[in-house]
Specification:
single chain; 175 residues; mainly alpha; two-stranded antiparallel sheet; 6 helices; extended
Length: 175
C-alpha cells in the first residue's frame, strides 16, 4: 500500500491549497518567504482579470512564433501602461493627502482608482467637432468638470491637453 502524502488524509486529499516551490528539495527557503510570495498572488490575479476583461484579451489564432511573441509583447505593454496609469493617481493622492476620490457610479468614493474606474469616469467627456471640407468651424469639450480636471492633475496630464484643443489635437505638444 502506498504511503499517504502530506496532502492526503485517510486516502483522500485534504481541502486547501498546497504551496509548491519550483525547487521542492530546497530546505533553505524560509516559510515566511513562501507565505509572502503566496499572499502577493492576488496582485497577479488582478492583472490577469484586467487583461481578460478590461483589455478584452481573447484567443487569437496565430501560426508564426514571431507573431505570437509580438502579440504577447503587446499584451504585456498594455498591462504595463494600465499599471502605470493606475499608479500615478494613487502616488499623487498620497503626496497631496487625498484619501478618496468620488469617481465611482453614484459618487461612491474609492481609495484605489483603477483603469476601469477612470475609463468609466471619463466616458461622458466628449469632443464634438463641426467641420466643412476638412476645415474645423467649431469645437468644444463637453462634460469636463472640476473633478475631471483634478483627476487629470493626479494622472499627470496637463490641463492644456483638454482645454486648448485645436485642429490635429492628437499631435499634442507640451507648452
Amino acid at each position: 500500500m502506498a504511503t499517504a502524502t502530506p496532502y492526503q488524509q485517510n486516502g483522500m486529499y485534504r481541502p486547501g491549497i498546497p504551496l509548491f516551490d519550483q525547487q521542492p528539495n530546497n530546505s533553505s527557503i524560509d516559510a515566511a518567504d513562501v507565505l509572502k510570495k503566496y499572499k502577493n498572488q492576488p496582485y497577479l490575479e488582478k492583472r490577469m482579470h484586467t487583461a481578460k476583461s478590461i483589455l478584452k484579451v481573447a484567443p487569437v489564432f496565430l501560426e508564426s512564433p514571431k507573431r505570437i511573441e509580438a502579440m504577447l509583447f503587446l499584451y504585456f505593454v498594455a498591462l504595463m501602461i494600465v499599471g502605470l496609469i493606475e499608479r500615478n493617481p494613487r502616488k499623487n493622492m498620497k503626496q497631496e493627502n487625498i484619501e478618496k476620490l468620488s469617481i465611482l457610479p453614484s459618487k461612491i468614493k474609492t481609495r484605489t482608482p483603477t483603469w476601469n474606474n477612470l475609463n468609466n469616469f471619463f466616458r461622458n467627456v466628449h469632443l464634438p467637432i463641426i467641420s466643412r471640407q476638412k476645415i474645423i468651424l467649431s469645437f468644444s469639450i463637453n462634460g469636463l468638470t472640476e473633478l475631471h480636471s483634478n483627476i487629470l492633475h493626479l494622472l499627470g496630464v496637463p490641463d492644456i491637453a483638454y482645454r486648448n484643443v485645436k485642429d490635429r489635437w492628437w499631435q499634442f505638444k507640451p507648452a
